[in-house]
């Protein structure tokens, strides 16, 4: 439990850092050029760390199923949808919906146990937790102007 | 309406990505999963860039080199995400990631790190953060 939670917190911190860095890249280059660079960097970093951790075993793909080769395409879908959503709605509104949607689908996934994940039974308590988090997102994002300090 | 649809599908894709990675990692290992998915994603993006030609590569030089490395964090992010999903389930993982992400962004905003415009946080932001943490505690009970 604690290991899982810390892993998620570390991932989240790096994600916010990555978002800021990526936005800076995006400001100068086209969004597809930026996406290509970002995924390329991620590939190189994973390859290097993977080699350090697992050695040559990293490139043994015995249990590879065909669809595994295509799952990386989801990332391209993520980038397209986020860029379009932010362009049409503005960042605050768009990101609030993205986060809400993420949580709702997560709850759905846990409850149904799709794609071979262990099913985590649905409960009213879980729904309550998710609803409070969504409420928090709305208060955080829309609660009063966050004044820029000069 | 179109924007809302994009945002909803985008969020669904983010969750799907984590779940798919968690599933794949059971067969081929976590680091292999990160490497393969980033590689295939990179190839598709590269293909698109060559077709739509918005790649003004020389413009990368205008970006501070540090910011170009942001993508590399994906290695840690994917590893953390997969490990967490296996241990605590999708809902709790996404919730915890979300809180860490918003808190860290919050700190960066307050302090104006990385050349971000400094922003003052008001009571609603603190209440919102408190509600999110409370929600995660309820999920984790």
From TrEMBL, chain A:
Origin: domain of life? Bacteria
Which InterPro entries does the UniProt entry name for this protein? Answer: YdcZ (IPR006750)
Gene Ontology CC: one annotated term: plasma membrane
Pfam families xref list: DMT_YdcZ
Membrane in keyword set: yes
Tell me the keywords, alphabetical order: Membrane, Transmembrane, Transmembrane helix
| Coiled-coil residue windows | none
Spell out where the chain crosses the membrane: 32-54, 66-86, 92-115, 127-144
Query: What is this protein called in UniProt?
Result: DMT family transporter
Q: Which organism is it from?
A: Psychrobacillus vulpis
TrEMBL record, chain B:
Q: Which GO terms describe its cellular component?
A: plasma membrane
Assigned keywords, A-Z: Membrane, Transmembrane, Transmembrane helix
Q: Which Pfam families match?
A: DMT_YdcZ
Q: Which InterPro entries match?
A: YdcZ
Q: Which residues cross the membrane?
A: 32-53, 65-88, 94-116, 123-140
Q: What is this protein called?
A: DMT family transporter
């Amino acid at each position: 439990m604690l290991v899982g939670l810390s892993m998620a917190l570390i991932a989240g911190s790096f994600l916010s850092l990555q978002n800021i860095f990526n936005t800076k890249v995006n400001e100068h280059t086209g969004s597809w050029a930026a996406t290509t660079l970002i995924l390329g960097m991620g590939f190189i970093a994973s390859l290097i760390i993977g080699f350090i951790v697992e050695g040559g075993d990293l490139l043994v793909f015995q249990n590879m199923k065909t669809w595994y080769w295509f799952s990386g395409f989801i990332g391209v879908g993520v980038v397209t949808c986020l860029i379009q959503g932010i362009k049409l709605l503005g960042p605050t509104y768009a990101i609030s919906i993205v986060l809400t949607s993420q949580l709702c689908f997560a709850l759905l996934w846990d409850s149904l146990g799709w794609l071979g994940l262990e099913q985590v039974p649905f409960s009213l308590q879980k729904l309550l937790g998710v609803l409070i988090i969504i409420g928090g997102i709305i208060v955080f994002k829309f609660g009063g102007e966050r004044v820029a300090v000069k | 309406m179109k924007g809302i649809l994009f945002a909803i599908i985008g969020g669904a894709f983010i969750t799907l990505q984590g779940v798919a990675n968690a599933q794949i990692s059971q067969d081929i290992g976590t680091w292999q999963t990160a490497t393969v998915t980033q590689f295939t994603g990179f190839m598709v993006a590269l293909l698109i860039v060559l077709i739509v030609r918005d790649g003004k590569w020389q413009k990368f030089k205008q970006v501070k080199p540090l910011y170009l490395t942001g993508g590399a964090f994906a290695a840690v992010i994917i590893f953390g995400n997969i490990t967490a999903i296996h241990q605590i389930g999708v809902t709790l993982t996404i919730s915890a990631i979300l809180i860490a992400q918003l808190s860290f962004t919050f700190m960066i905003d307050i302090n104006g790190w990385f050349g971000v415009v400094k922003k003052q946080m008001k009571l609603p932001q603190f209440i919102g953060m408190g509600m999110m943490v409370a929600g995660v505690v309820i999920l984790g009970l």
